[in-house]
Amino acid sequence: MNLYGEILEGPKLRFGYSSNSELDTYSKRGLSRYGPYDSNLLRKDKVKCILLYPEQLVMEKQTLIDGLTKGEGTFKGFNDFFKIPLEFIEEISFSSDIKVILESIYQKNPDIVYILLNGRDSNIYSEAKSNLLANGIPSQMVTSEKIKNPTGRQHVLENICLASYGKIGGTPWTISTTDTDNKLVLGVSRAQDYNGKYLVGFVVLFTNDGDFLFINSKAPVISWDQYTKGLSELVESSIIEYTKIKGSPTSITIHFHKRPGKGEIEAIENALKETLTNIPYAIVHVNEYSNFRLFDSSHLSYIPPKGFSVRLSSHESLILLDGRIDGNRYRIGVPRVLNVRIDKRSTLDRSKFSDLIKQIYHFSYINWRGFNAAATPITLNYSKLIARMIIELGVENWNQIIAGGKLRDKAWFL
Fold this sequence. Notes:
Order of helices and strands: EEEHEHHEHEHEHHEEEEHEHEEEEHHH
Structural class: alpha/beta
CATH topology of the largest domain: Nucleotidyltransferase, domain 5
CATH superfamily of the largest domain: Ribonuclease H-like superfamily/Ribonuclease H
Number of domains: 2
Strand order of the largest sheet: 1-14-15-16-13-12-9-10-11
Helix content: 25-40%
Shape: globular
CATH architecture of the largest domain: 2-Layer Sandwich
Strand content: 15-25%
Oligomer: single chain
Largest sheet: 9 strands, mixed
Radius of gyration: 22 Å
CATH class of the largest domain: Alpha Beta
Distance between the termini: 42 Å
Number of strands: 16
């Protein structure tokens, strides 16, 4: 059996909706040079913030505010990256119960609420995040330990700013691509509550260059049949809504976060047949728990270069999202292999499979959770983050968040 491999080239990142020349290979440098992708689209002249903090953390509170607004080290603050000021309209201390404080915040309608915690207090975290989200307000939790320690604090502040911009609905950067076709990419996944009783399905929509559009979900259900029926309706309504915004797609690609069951595939097929007459589609399973491992016997570390891809067949490939960069290995351990397989029921021409592999690899360069976050395709990463949030907040709170609808086009789950 002969296997063929190649090293996929990393993409250029695009910082400018109206310009094809504002490009860079490094996200920090690109933001400092050009600002975010949607500078002219955000329609804000400032980002209004409220900070909640325990009354004993006054010094840490001020360190956080100064770090986000003025920066630290070579980082010059939120405005330097995103070309819009971060304005703290109120700083509120609390002792234990924050219910009354939260109720007062809703009326002020901030863009984001920062919550400083002395360690991760699960009760305050869950209550504050779920109540704020139910009222359409994203939040960012920060532990005092990260603020107290000057070692690495600059990077912590940079990552907080990046995630904050995504949470308020901003797009820091996208992938630069010469492919101008109107291609729709969906990330599809599911989550269950701690008792395994309720099922929640959701769909996340992206453009061909990795720009996040919105998330679609429904109320939790109990039976698998209810879930698959709801999933079909979700995919169908998502495509219809996308068509109203962007026009009819030339093709559609669906990435499954978890291994799809037969009922899920049938549900997807039914939705596609209802909405995409004669439009080719690909159903792709993106598995991060592959049994395969890739090694490079020509190097002392045995670690292959980042972007190494091996074609197993006409419908299955392996991709290494981590690995050696310029000959060096910056992480510990054996890199995890991504196993990508296109479902046999897909109608997209198999000759396009290599393009799908390249797109998945390029999508791993869009991670607004942090500049140094592990490379994971956004379709997979967002699905995991949303599933985790559903479990943490509880399905009853998820109902309120989805029903409100104010956050569906914001990456509040970062």
